[in-house]
Design a protein that fits this description.
Layout: H1 7-20, H2 41-47, H3 52-59, H4 68-77, H5 82-93, H6 114-122, E1 128-131, E2 137-140, H7 142-147, H8 161-167, H9 171-174, H10 178-194, H11 200-212, H12 214-219, E3 231-237, E4 241-252, E5 255-265, H13 293-297, E6 299-304, E7 307-311, H14 315-324, H15 334-339, E8 346-347
């Protein structure tokens, strides 16, 4: 019986991880005259308590079916992370508890439940979106479209987070640590794609990205994977400027392959979150004076309970601030901001 996973990709992963290790990483002597990059096959086989022939078959992509014990031993021998262990299992076993369509047939078109769409809208002004199994954006609220891009204005085939990240210009302005974020997104996307090795939609997207993105083309063969989870990001909001965000990732119970992601500005209460649109009140200071753009871009840090003291725009963010803040702010001298930062005192409670 043919393996349920992807033996070729499994072999590529094993080889990539073997070549990254050196003998000292696994407690082996360095030796002399090593003609291979990384560990030798026989060294990995010995660490995993396998025969060299069997390990060679795995790395060559032969149609063998390694047991769970063998996969665990290989993951330990190759010092794999939790995400890499999961990826190894997916490549060896295929999808668990999911009925795959016939090889070469696309998955059914994804639909998001209207109740989920309503929830996404209610979470505004917290930027929130729902992405599908292929990282297509299925729903988003106005704040998410303001922060990232207007997904609804894009053609249906272009509403994809990975495609946007690697082929559009705006992500490099939004993500202040673009390379690290792009690599992490690619690792998560790879783990998702491994669950659909025969889906032509995934294959078409990967082919498109390899053709149009130099970074994708260079990084895809590295076999890097990453877990999806909550965390924090440094993003450049078009109104607030450089802002630290926390984000929460939730899998929908009725469709676990769809994921809701919602963002919150760090240290910002819901009432002070960025809001746009007709009829919404402008931001004001404690003295009921409208907050100027450069004051919104300042970072407020709690010094003690109930008091927020001013802090200047951090140095690494100044050049980015000039680039990401919309037109009328571009003429402001960033060096003037550095020499004479605005003081903002906001007292609560």
């Amino acid at each position: 019986m043919a393996p349920a996973g992807d033996p070729q990709a499994l072999g590529q992963l094993l080889r990539a991880r073997r070549e990254r290790l050196v003998p000292g990483d696994v407690g082996l002597p360095a030796g002399v005259r090593r003609r291979t990059t990384g560990l030798r096959r026989e060294e990995v086989a010995s660490l995993a308590n396998l025969s060299t022939t069997y390990y060679t078959f795995l790395e060559q992509g032969r149609p063998v079916r390694p047991s769970d014990q063998v996969l665990d031993a290989l993951a330990s021998a190759l010092r794999m992370s939790r995400a890499e262990r999961r990826y190894l299992q997916v490549l060896a076993r295929g999808r668990d508890s999911v009925v795959s369509p016939a090889a070469g047939m696309p998955e059914p078109a994804e639909r998001v439940d209207q109740r989920v769409v309503d929830l996404v809208q209610r979470l505004d002004p917290s930027p929130t979106l729902v992405k599908g199994r292929r990282w297509d954006v299925l729903a988003s609220n106005p704040s998410a479209r303001e922060l990232f891009t207007d997904w609804e204005a894009l053609p249906a085939g272009e509403r994809n987070l990975v495609r946007w990240m690697f082929t559009a210009g705006r992500p490099r302005d939004v993500y202040m640590e673009w390379e690290a974020e792009a690599r992490a997104m690619l690792g998560r996307f790879r783990l998702a794609a491994a669950r659909y090795p025969d889906d032509p939609d995934f294959g078409a997207l990967i082919d498109e990205l390899q053709h149009h993105s130099e970074q994708f083309r260079a990084w895809w063969p590295d076999q890097d994977v990453a877990d999806m989870g909550s965390g924090s990001k440094k993003l450049c909001h078009p109104t607030l400027g450089p802002t630290d965000y926390t984000h929460v990732v939730l899998h929908l119970a009725d469709n676990p392959e769809q994921t809701l992601v919602t963002y919150s500005a760090t240290g910002t209460p819901p009432s002070a979150a960025p809001r746009t649109g007709r009829g919404r009140p402008p931001r004001t200071t404690a003295g009921n004076r409208p907050v100027a753009w450069h004051e919104r871009a300042s970072v407020l840090t709690p010094r003690h309970r109930g008091v927020f003291a001013p802090m200047a725009v951090p140095g690494p963010h100044r050049a980015h601030l000039r680039r990401c803040v919309p037109g009328r702010h571009r003429s402001v001298d960033r060096h003037r901001l550095q020499a004479d930062p605005p003081a903002v005192g906001v007292r609560t409670g």
